[in-house]
Structures
1.
Amino acid sequence: KKEKREDDKKEKKEKGDRMQLAPWLTLSASELLEIASPPGQGHLLKPEELQQCFRMLLKTSSPSPEISVYQLDKVLSKAKAVYDQTSVAGCFMLKPDSELSFSERATRAFLEALDRKLMEKFTRGNGSKLDSLFEGEETVTPSMLMRKAVSFALSPDTIPAEKDLAVSLAQIGGHRETGSMTRPVFFRALYLSRHHRHMQRTKTIKARSALLAQQTRRSTWWPEGSHPARQSSKQRAKGAVPLPKRKGFRVAAFVECLVKLALHRLGSKGQLELQRGAPTWWKCTWLLNLLGMRFTETVRDKEHEDNLKRLIGQDRPAVKTKDLDFWWYRMHQTDRPRYVPPLERLVRHNPDLFQPWKAEAPILVPEDRKGICPECQEQRSPSGWGTPGCLSCSEIESFCLPFEGHMFSNLVKASSVGANSEVSDMSYLSPHSEFVDESGSFQLPFDAAELSQSLIIT
């Protein structure tokens, strides 16, 4: 019993030690900026400005102050809580549904549906078409919005009553009695609806990720007595049961999992027989097309958001809404430091990532092989690639998978005689085939050792 008590005391002490961070783990202003740079930066502070922030937080006059990791974590958590509280208190557009009245929920749903319809209508061609919305009108009234929604064929269930719409619009910059607002204030209301939709999507993704991580932890099998939380101090000191090693999940593993998911989705869960029995390269092409469509939708969404910001402008509205104006102009209209997600950074710098002129690598094709392929009767792409399933113009063997040194090269490539004559697929059984020896017996182009090696690889 005494040994058990001592082990429990040591274990509690070790747990307490693990929870505490060493006081020498500190960061300077330049180190923090270096850490914050790789994920993508909008407008980072200068080192001098960040040093001034450290002096205000630590209440010191040191010329090069450093902050501990523990204090920095507390500061970031507090700043995130204040930001969320300020955004929710700004207007009803960012509050949860449980805190809204019926008219406020109906107004927010109406603005979200109208914004989606505008993005679908004005991002197909030139984005400047959004400028023509209510062009020449000084104010936008609730009745004008309802008529515009009917002309856009919005569902009647999403169009609220004119009185409820006027009361709700008055809370986000509209006139107190009529609910009418200027065009910039109307575009700001649309942007707020988009911001709420983005917050809901982020919250859903985080909840799903947390649930998946919890399920993964529960499904992980540990040998008896090897779980870190259930090991005693003696077991950890002796190291009797080794802990499972962790491996990095890199880009190659991610791409492999993505392709396997696509093959499983179309092969095992395909709704049509054509999907289940399609070749592998068809399924990989479907995956690339799906990623391209989703990325194109993100690019259009970003263009629509930039157009809304441009139409909102920098002018303050005539009708003052203190909390909303403070949150909007401090968070969206100033060059403040802002985290840029990887997808948004990719959309900014490479919006044509999946376009043919950017996605396909150009290849050099002889002049006599350009044009329409005589086998599949398909035109080559501008970069030189042909049909992936055609043996004549795909160029996969020449540029992607050179089979000259492969043990199955004679089986994959057709002979010159069979390629120029109408011979069946079983031509290798004819006496003139290259797989028939002088005695007339069939012989493979590899020996038994290579065959056994290929079976092991398979």
2.
Amino acid sequence: LIVTAVSDGTFNAHALAAQQGAFAMLESIDSIAQTSMNQARIAAAVIFFTVGFVALLIGALLAWGISEPVSRLSTDIQQMDEYNGILPEFIIPASRGFAIKDVAEAQRAFRKLLSGIRAFSIFIPEEVVTRIIYGDPRSVRPHVDTRNVTIMFTGIRGIMQMSLNEEQMLSVITRFHKMMTSIVEQYEGTVGEILDEGLLVYFNAPRMVSNHATKACEAGLAQRQAMNTLRQELVDDGWLDPSDGFLRLGVGIHSGSVLVGCIGSAMKMKFGCIGDAMNLTSRLQGLCKFYDVDVMCSEETCLATSALVCRKLDLLQVKGRQETTAVYEIIGQDTVVTMTGTEATQATQATSASGMAGPMTTGSSSPNSEPDQEVQAQTIGNGALTLPIPKSNARKKGPPQFLPPEEERSDAPLLL
């Protein structure tokens, strides 16, 4: 029997080595797993933030693509809701690739509608367009109302005698219409129609205008001044000789009761006036050439005005009417000043020499007036014409009247 003594651990050395190797391998695997997990976390965070950023960017683009056209559409709708006869020129937006199709189409369609309304208001009175927009049922069917209206016909005289080509002729007429329309609107008139070389204007229709007769006459005086400006511009352009008598203004004004409203049928309608006043006003405008005046009005308009100086021209009788009508030239605005008798005499002599007006039927100052005697006088325009009125003669109601200059009139009215 042989007994051998060996040291402790001799037989489990291999097991211990294997155990240590296993522990080392586990540590390596754990390290690799931690590294992989950290990388996965970083990748997940990057992916999350990237996706979030892209989502925010897309959301912002979508919000801008919706809000920007919706905001413009809201502005357009607000302008439409606050429509007062004036709309700006609208630009139809171009189609954009990232815009919301339905919203962009709605905005473009509404812009087209507003552009159409703006163009529509150029051809008919703005007040009529406003009534149509706000749903007035009478504005889309034939109807008339009786109203006292001051009517104005204004036009160019002698333009066809000018040596102008087509473009120059159109330019002159366009400039004339622009100046006259601007003046009419300043005095609360409404342009009813464009009459080739003139305008048909209503005061107190379709909108109510206080003191419309006076405003119409003041508009006529302003148009006379504007025509002088236009003549000077054409002279400067070399289109008109200063000595030529072409391009004169002719304005006829009359106040009377007419039928005002939409005239026509359900197929075609227009805004206008019906009555004898329309015919008489047209005749007055045509008589401007006969009497060689720029602005003339009827007695009805003359008596309804204030602070204006008028000169009586004649008595007229329109065919089909029994009563006669006195017609007047509107000379200027009435400004009362004080002057001495000598100044009044000089003014009377200057007035007689000018040939613009004859002696005043309500009385005039005597050439033998005392130098220190004070009289009232009318200063017309910018002081170019001064007509003396004695203090002893109280002013009567209505404008002063003047006899026709250098023309012999019979008591019989002129038949038109």
3.
Amino acid sequence: MNKYRKVIKAREELVKEDEEIRVTAAGSVSAYISRAAKLFNEMEKTYLTITATGNALTKAVTSAEVIKRRFKGLHQITKLASQEIVDEYEPLEEGL
């Protein structure tokens, strides 16, 4: 691997909707619950979407369960997807 360098790709900028809560491994569950309360009460939204990847999945599930108990009449629709990440490397020397 010393003779190769990773190719840096430009990231796609995805637009985050108001109804979306992106859960991270570093965030707190109470902050996500507060955001859901703001969406339902102040912004009068009828639904929300919780997204997470990797180590944040457990926090996303916990947040969804607490939100369902706190706000009566909600229904959960679960969608699982996979994301394939491909790293590209270019040789540093000619002929590799």
